[in-house]
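note to self: dont lose this again. the chain is below, predicted strucutre after it. 203 aa total, dont forget to put it in the shared folder this time
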Amino acid sequence: DAVNAEASLTVKSGTITIDAGDDALHADYALAIGESGTAGPTITINSCYEGLAGANLLVASGAITIYSEDDCLNAANSDLTGYDFTMDITGGTIWAYAASDDGLDSNGSLTISGGTLTVWTANTADNQALDADRTITVSGGTVTVTSGKDGITSDETENEEKGFVTIEDGEIIITSVGDGVSAETTLTVTDGVISIISGSGSA
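---
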């Protein structure tokens, strides 16, 4: 890893450019980028395996560009069992380009309440733009995805309490080869502006 923390890692400001053979910014537990009400850091990751990785991942502000081999943002830790993995995007601008896996991937929940996200994933197997095992909630922000598979998906099949997608507000623009939005259990849309162009899948 370019930067690795065994517990937590916080990046509040500055300019960081990374070329990494493994993860770019990795924390075993909490990884936080930026702060609410601030411009936050400018982070450019030109190459890496995973871009931002932590069991609890927060992006509150900043300008972040990631070119990754695997997930651009990943909320996970294979050493933790039964853990409440979370990914929260509350602000900032994120450009995420994943060559062979997901753009944003959470082993628990993924919540977007602000910010501007542009996510691109290649046309390979299991390559969703936004993917979470338990829940995906969009309540604000602007999300633009171009996906080689599904756009937004929560596909946990082994637990009936998982696999939910909820869209409460925000602007979402999806172009996908597979499904535009897919929820294994329940899909709920109460508000927001949504545009979907799907290929062989369904909206």
